[in-house]
Amino acid sequence: MIPEFVTPTVxxxxxxxxxxxxxxxxxxxxxxxxxxxxxxxPVQIGLSLLATGGALIAVAVLWGPVMDTGxxxxxxxxxxxxxxxxxxxxxxxxxxxLSVLVMADRTAAKEDAFAPMVSASPxxxxxxxxxxxxxxxxxxxxxxxxxxxxxxxxxxxxxxxxMFVALEVLSLPLYLLAGMxxxxxxxxxxxxxxxxxxxxxxxxxxxFGVALIYGATGSISFSGIAAAVPTPTGTEPLLxxxxxxxxxxxxxxxxxxxxxxxxxxxxQGAPTPITGFMAAATKVAAFLAILRVVYVMLYGLGxxxxxxxxxxxxxxxxxxxxxxxxxxxxxxxxAYSSVAHAGFVLVGVTALDxxxxxxxxxxxxxxxxxTVGAFAVISLVRERSASGGVTAxxxxxxQWSGLGRExxxxxxxxxxxLLSFAGIPLTAGFVGKFAVFSAxxxxxxxxxxxxxxxxxxxxxxxxxxxxxxxxxxTTERTQGDGEESEAAxxxxxxxxxxxxxxxxxxxxxxxxxxxxxxxxxxxxxxxTVLLGVLPGPVLDxxxxxxxxxx
Amino acid sequence: xxxMSYVVLAAVLFAVGTTTVLVRRNAIIAFMGIELMLxxxxxxxxxxARMHGNLSGQVLAFFVMVVAAAEVVVGLAIIVAIFRAxxxxxxxxVNLLKDVRDPA
Lengths: 550, 104
Description:
The complex is a heterodimer of chains A (550) and B (104).
Chain A: H1 16-34, H2 37-69, E1 72-74, E2 79-81, H3 83-104, H4 125-132, H5 140-154, H6 160-178, H7 185-217, H8 222-228, H9 236-254, H10 262-269, H11 272-297, H12 302-325, H13 330-350, H14 356-380, E3 381-385, E4 390-393, H15 403-406, H16 408-422, H17 428-442, H18 446-471, H19 487-493, E5 506-510, H20 516-533, H21 536-544
Antiparallel strand pairs in A: 1-2, 3-4, 3-5
Chain B: H1 4-23, H2 27-52, H3 56-86
């Protein structure tokens, strides 16, 4: 006899942030197919801003009810909308919105950061034709929204199936977005391939971990696994192996050592607005997922996992810091610094303290704002050829020398972001570092806090190196491609090398644009200072709501 | 034959897939290794579903298949784009991304 079909009840209200973003992504795909070419760009940008803004408002509206009730589990427990979920979703929506602004920015020649026709081979006639026709890539906006939607779900799942699907929904669009740069397309495609192969490898490890955990406990829901973990059944090795594989997949997404090898290449090759987005927003989503796995699902396994967590945390802080010190490419430098930051955030996770989750979320807020802002600045610093055309980004540190003096406002904003990365007081980064380290101390993980403080002191050298280069150029600016003009030796002979700007084939400039990226930089800078000077209200708000719903 | 043999087979297949990804230089072959890892996972999932007598594992296996299909679409698109640009899919040849040393 067939049992009667019972229609499931769905609480739609707590799903609104996700529905806005994914709905807009689907609509965006349709618009791409049906709108005339001229309309696509403004409509797509407007839709993306609306969707992310709508998600932010929805989070704000849900805040009160979630604070009162402790949260909802939606769709039979597949999605858990509790306090940490809301904080992370708000963060992701905010960072996505800022990233859309950076992506939308165009130079005076109406060129954005994305290839006019990604499917055309670099240097082919087809590409030249697309360029001449003024074609403009607008699939990037729906792809970004799909990735954002995946991130909104990734950290708020209540079972491993939803988590796996969300992992793929957030990753697949990012693999593609990484390969869409307008300039240096071969490098961009290479970044895309590396990100894809290693990302797919990590998801395969993740899903095998899921299978082993399911085999050991017979359940794929977090509450079911959490209930099964403490009872001894003789399947503990299976469970532990599964947990390690699962965490491997998650560590890959945040770029923690030893799963960080993709980060520098992908950060360098991907279009800069996308680099900022994936560095900031992916980390928020993946760290919430890690928190949920460590604090909820495998809490009973905390002791066994300690060795793994401590090793990864310490290795990330040390390797990221040391490697950042020796980089000469600004995007690679920030990539290694992001590895170190993953380590700092992991300190808050590894603390296994009640203040861990709120400190991690605040740190991610501080880090995310500075990251999106810093990469927005990098996207504006370009090479200018002798004929005056703006070409690729100037990412070599040598090219940045003296930049802060020539462009004081943008330079000051970049310095602010670097100081926030370094954790200098009166910036958001300092408050974030203070929060995670004090969580570690109260969680009896003080060695982590000690290593963290030492590593951030060392990392400050890497940032100071950039600041010094920007404001106190020791030599005249060098060219990344090694092209020296013939005027240089003569002016050197006249003893005016330091001041004279000899004619050269390319110069470096902060490019004049439509101003969208400047808005994103401004918002990030203001929030970074505000959170550094007055962190109290935000810290309290996050702390009050940071209890996980089981 | 006990159900545990299937789990062992799944683990062996997974190890073969992992080795393929780590050892082979051709991007397509490496990608096939990833697919083998996913299918090994499917075998493990359905075996565990049978052991525990619930359907979660089987449902998961279906989702893994769908995700694998989506991954193929994205992955082959990227590999084909690279092949058209460079006439090679060897992962040793994609080596443009590295730290640049300043000439000065």
